[in-house]
């Protein structure tokens, strides 16, 4: 058994705290409420608030919003004045109104928080709101004047790497996060660039702020021919935080898009007959997705430098997999609203809801071979991917179908 499975039972018992609780775990369906160029549609907060009832009607009950602090970059990932919530996405008041609108529609809200790095207000490291000294910058940062300890994680070249060993820095960040929770109304966090600091610090911040939902970005290089090593790295990180923070399932993203692109659907089952991504080992803590602001295109087709887009003609087959399988599925805003897929995605969410599928729903893989993947999920839903014929048998009704997928219910 893999290392992380030692805490699987605990995670299953706790898995319902952020969303609808089913016997099969957390029933959360999440949307990434922005893309890389959302800031160009200022105030973006108004767009999010306007869509709140539409999202709720589709069965979505958690929204991940972009970094809302003042930032050197319009996207929000070079935070400057943390306490100032006026950003390229709109004003603090507009943000608060959007959060209230989402809450009124029954949708919880998590903030994208950047704790690893920061830029100065007018120079390399003249930090204000809150004010920190040169000892808050890691000694091995590119600035060359940092007086803190060496970095406890991976460096980030575009901003100053923050020294989280300093007690006053940690207390300052806790106060900031708790302020966001209490004043803006955030329910939880998406931790950006979590490889940039030691896991113990994120665990400390998480425990100090008690989020209802927390997920970390752990984006490591993936060899699709050695998926076990990749998902083991995700599992090891979660072991280091006692299973208290979920992670985005980059393993499933990479394996799924390779399988659908090539027809190598055998990749979707591991040697033990379980799903090949993280959701095959630790489903309660796997936040599954096809694309995000870094990997996928924005509506105008723009990709981030490190773009890794899901094949556009396989997107609905990908969502058929995510929305019938365990884990916590996350939908990408452009797919839902800008690609004309809202109706098809909503139908799959409705199937998930009606069947009571959740983050720990059991999967029985019937076929995983070239051109065909077939599975039964919690004996209530059956899925086929690929162009080869397959049927779940008598007693099943076709509930949804599209390019490269078919979904049945009992």
Give a structural overview.
By secondary structure, this protein is α/β, with parallel strands linked by helices. The chain has one domain: TIM Barrel, CATH 3.20.20. The protein is 29% helix and 17% strand. The protein contains eleven helices and 17 strands. The strands form four sheets. It has an eight-stranded parallel beta barrel, surrounded by four helices. The chain has a five-stranded antiparallel sheet with strand order 13-14-15-17-16, covered by helices on one side. Strands 1-2 form a two-stranded antiparallel ribbon. Strand 4, helix 4 (92-104) and strand 5 form a beta-alpha-beta unit. Helix 2 packs parallel to helix 4 (92-104), helix 5 packs across helix 6 and helix 9 (315-324) packs parallel to helix 11 (342-355). The chain is globular. 53% of the residues are buried.
CATH domain class name: Alpha Beta
**How large is the radius of gyration?**
21 Å
The overall pLDDT average reads: 94
CATH-derived topology: TIM Barrel
Helix content: 25-40%
- Beta percentage is 15-25%
Largest beta sheet: strand ordering: 3-4-5-8-9-10-11-12
Distance between the termini: 33 Å
The CATH architecture name reads: Alpha-Beta Barrel
Please summarize the sheet with the most strands: 8 strands, parallel, barrel
SS summary, helix count: 11
Summarize the structure.
This protein has 410 residues and is α/β, with parallel strands linked by helices. The chain contains eleven helices and 17 strands. Strands 3-4-5-8-9-10-11-12 form an eight-stranded parallel β-barrel, surrounded by four helices. Strands 13-14-15-17-16 form a five-stranded antiparallel beta sheet, with helices on one face. Strands 1-2 form a two-stranded antiparallel ribbon.
């Amino acid at each position: 058994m893999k290392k992380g499975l030692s805490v699987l039972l605990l995670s299953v018992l706790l898995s319902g705290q952020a969303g609808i609780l089913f016997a099969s775990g957390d029933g959360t369906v999440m949307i990434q409420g922005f893309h890389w160029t959302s800031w160009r549609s200022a105030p973006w907060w108004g767009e999010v608030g306007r869509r709140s009832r539409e999202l709720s009607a589709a069965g979505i009950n958690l929204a991940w919003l972009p970094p809302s602090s003042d930032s050197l970059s319009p996207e929000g990932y070079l935070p400057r004045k943390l306490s100032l919530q006026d950003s390229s996405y709109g004003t603090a008041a507009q943000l608060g109104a959007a959060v209230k609108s989402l809450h009124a529609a029954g949708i919880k809200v998590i903030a994208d928080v950047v704790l690893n790095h920061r830029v100065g207000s007018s120079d390399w490291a003249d930090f204000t709101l809150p004010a920190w000294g040169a000892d808050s910058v890691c000694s091995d940062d590119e600035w060359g004047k940092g007086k803190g300890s060496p970095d406890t994680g991976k460096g980030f070249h575009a901003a100053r790497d923050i020294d989280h060993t300093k007690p006053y820095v940690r207390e300052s960040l806790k106060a900031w996060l708790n302020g966001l929770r209490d004043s803006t109304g955030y329910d939880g966090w998406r931790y950006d660039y979590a490889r940039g600091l030691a896991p113990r610090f994120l665990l400390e911040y998480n425990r100090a702020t008690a989020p209802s939902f927390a997920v970390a970005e752990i984006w490591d290089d993936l060899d699709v021919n050695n998926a076990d090593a990749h998902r083991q790295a995700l599992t090891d990180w979660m072991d280091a935080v006692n299973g208290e923070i979920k992670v985005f399932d980059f393993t499933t993203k990479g394996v799924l898009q390779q399988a659908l692109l090539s027809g190598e659907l055998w990749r979707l089952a591991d040697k033990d007959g379980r799903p090949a991504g993280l959701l095959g080992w630790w489903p309660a803590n796997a936040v599954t997705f096809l694309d995000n602001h870094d990997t996928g295109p924005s509506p105008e087709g723009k990709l981030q430098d490190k773009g890794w887009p899901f094949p556009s003609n396989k997107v609905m087959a990908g969502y058929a997999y995510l929305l019938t399988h365990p884990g916590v599925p996350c939908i990408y805003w452009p797919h839902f609203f800008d690609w004309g897929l809202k109706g098809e995605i909503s139908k799959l969410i409705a199937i998930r809801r009606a069947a009571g599928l959740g983050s720990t729903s059991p999967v029985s893989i019937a076929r995983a071979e070239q051109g065909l993947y077939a599975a039964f999920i919690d004996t209530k839903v059956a899925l086929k991917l690929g162009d080869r014929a397959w049927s779940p048998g008598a007693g099943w009704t076709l509930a949804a179908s599209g390019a490269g997928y078919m979904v049945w219910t009992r």
